[in-house]
Amino acid sequence: LYDIASKTITKYNDDGHLAAEGISPFIFFHDVVPEDFELIVQALKRAEEQKEEKQTIEVHAEDARQGTAQWLVIHLSVLRTDKNGKPAVIIGSTNDVTDERLRQQQVKDTMLRYQAIFETALVDTVAYDEHGIITNMNQKAINAFSGGISDILKSKISLQDVLGLDNVTVDNIDYTYLTQIYHGTDDRALNHYLKRDELLYELQLVPVRNDDGQLLAVYGTGRDVTEVARSYNQIKRQMRQQQQANDELGRSEERRV
């Protein structure tokens, strides 16, 4: 409780018992970083001046001695007024949201790392949102399509459109590595933009999840291996032909003997 007349704080424990009284806000919030302490001061002033009856602010506190940090959400509202109807006591409660903010920072850092890779990748790179819809592509991936990035995003191409697999969805997506064959007769939406009679594509999918396992995004990387596969098949055909010629030569030599 903050008493406006004395400008002091009375603290109660979670069970409602008195913990301390007559505390200066400077002492009570001594771990709050200066810029956020100013937010508290301004919030109390707005309540005192009757500009806002209820307020919620978030502050960052640091304990230099312990080397720890906290994020707190503070809820303020007028509890009592004086005989003139002006605010006399402000009640405040705090919620510790440190774990949530640390999780959010971890997710942010992860996404930034993926974004850095995304922009510099030498292979096709595609980003999908938590619903499995394409949200971004690097230039190398865009070059593989007949349309521009805006047309692709408007079409809301999904993981299902890319994979065409009923057993792989955003609900169960895991690290995936596979090579797919796309034909001109394939009715997947992706082929509308590929416009290729045949495409062999090596694909890797990496889901990004938070600590609770909730899907945040999927990053896909891939490359066109059509020519590599054709060259390999050509070599195999030549090797078979060479082997057949060697076998025929051997049989001819046996007949002469």
Describe this structure in words.
It is a single chain. It contains eight helices and eleven strands. Strand 1 (2-3) and strand 2 form a beta hairpin. It has helices at 25-28, 34-48, 98-120, 139-142, 149-154, 159-163, 191-194, 226-256; strands at residues 2-3, 8-12, 18-23, 54-63, 68-81, 87-96, 124-128, 134-137, 176-183, 198-209, 215-224. The longest helix is centred in the C-terminal third of the chain and has 31 residues, at 226-256. The protein is an alpha+beta fold and 257 residues long. The protein has a six-stranded antiparallel β-sheet, sandwiched between helices. A five-stranded antiparallel β-sheet has the order 8-7-11-10-9. The mean pLDDT is 82.
- The average pLDDT value, as a whole number, equals 82
Q: What Rg do the Cα atoms give?
A: 33 Å
How far is it from the N-terminal to the C-terminal residue, by CA?
Answer: 112 Å
Please indicate the percent range of residues in DSSP E strands (runs of 2 or more).
25-35%
Q: What global shape is seen?
A: elongated
Low-confidence region ranges: none
Strand order of the biggest β-sheet: 3-2-1-6-5-4
The count of β-strands is 11
**What share of the residues lie within helices?**
25-40%
Q: Number of DSSP helices?
A: 8
